[in-house]
Amino acid sequence: MEYRGDVLLYTFSGIALPVTTLLLWIAVTTSGSSSPLSRAEFVSYYIFLLIVGLWVSNWASFFISRDIRLGKMSPWLVKPAPFILYQATNNISEKFLKSAFLIPVMFILAVVFRFTWPLLHPFVWISFIISVALAGGIAFFIDISLGLLAFWIDDSSAAREIFSILHLIFSGRLLPLYALPLGLQNISFFLPFRYMLSLPLEIVLNKLSGYQLLTGLSIQIFLLVLTFLLYKFLWQRGTRRYSAAGY
Known about the structure:
Number of domains: 1
Order of helices and strands: HHHHHHHHH
Distance between the termini: 28 Å
Strand content: under 5%
Radius of gyration: 19 Å
Largest sheet: none
Number of strands: 0
Shape: globular
């Protein structure tokens, strides 16, 4: 709550892109042009994107990279509390606070765009919640790992920027993966970005068969384990070579 003004601005800045893109797609569907989804599906996609995008977002890599460069990582080598636990609790608590700002806005947008709540089987809703949690975990460990690259690279901002661009294209944040050319759609199935955002949205839109749903969740579990092991490897190797003075 110390930076509630900043949190409010960050929350509303995250709304601008989905709402703008939704307005563009509504214009496309209204004009009669062919589109990958119907107007109602686009509204559902971008309304759910607001909350799903928030709960899978991460922002720690910049601060981790900065602390490694400035030698401020030293206290975590002697504290009894795990570094990853601090990052996780910081991340989750901020998401709860941002959700308090976001949910009223979502209700307003739902009324403006005539959003109708999807009638789905309870199994689909449970799968959706599990998928969001898995997507958040994958994104979390990848974000932490990008920050830990500063143990070897003085400035890891280039790696973070490249990752952000690829994530924007292949995760479904900029536009649904169904709107991508077929070749890029096929590529997205083999990249981790789909499983960090798009998959939960595909589930809630009821676009997946039972086999596709279970396959997607299985891939998410595999990626979660893989990214956790990547974090462990980078943390253990990085702290062995870490050195700092003055802290």
